[in-house]
Amino acid sequence: MVDTIVSKNIKPSIFKITVIEDDCDDSDFLAEAFNEVSPKHTVLCFQSAEKLFNYLNSLADNDLPCLIVTDLNIPIINGIAILNMLNENPRYADIPKVVYSHSSNPRDKEDSIAAGALIYIKKPNTIVEIQKNAREMLSYCK
After folding, report:
1. Residues 77, 48: contact at Cβ < 8 Å?
2. pTM, full prediction
3. What's the whole-number mean pLDDT along residues 114-122?
4. In which band, very low, low, confident or very high, does the pLDDT at 62 lie, cut at 50, 70 and 90?
5. For 80-106, what is each residue's pLDDT tens digit?
6. What is the mean pLDDT of the chain?
7. Buried b (16+ CB within 10 A) or exposed e, 29-53
8. Which residues pair with residue 119 across a beta bridge?
9. Tens-place pLDDT, residues 33-48
């Protein structure tokens, strides 16, 4: 069900982050950055919305992730649709959501925020910048 778990042990939900990313390199870089910045967090990576929702639906309410990070341009169900689906379900509406995308189109940022993302982050090109982004995203985990 989970495409990749990039931590050795599953931790309580307060330390669980889900990433929806169809590019394996991008998900690996981000997961490694989360692990460098905060090894206590478990990062679960999914390559599709279907796999994400199958996973979320299998969890008890007290085991939901503290953060959901989604790419914008995902095949079949894109990041905006994922945000809308998450926010339409009261069970997932309060989970902080971040869009993490290569797009620099201002409209993509506006649409992401309107769909419920707390923040839109353009994917950087260096590991140091990715770690900075991971640190910022972690600040939304409650």
Report:
1. yes
2. 0.88
3. 96
4. confident
5. 999 999 999 999 999 999 999 999 999
6. 89
7. bbbbbbbebeeebbbbbbbbbebbb
8. 98
9. 999 998 888 999 999 9
Q: Looking at this protein, which amino acid is placed at residue 68?
A: I
Measure CA 25 to chain center: 15
Closest CA to 131 of 121, 120, 141: 121
* Cβ-Cβ contacts under 8 Å for 20 (sequence gap 6 or more): 45, 46, 47, 48, 49, 52, 68, 69, 70, 71, 74, 79, 82
What domains lie within the chain, and their CATH numbers? 4-138 (3.40.50.2300)
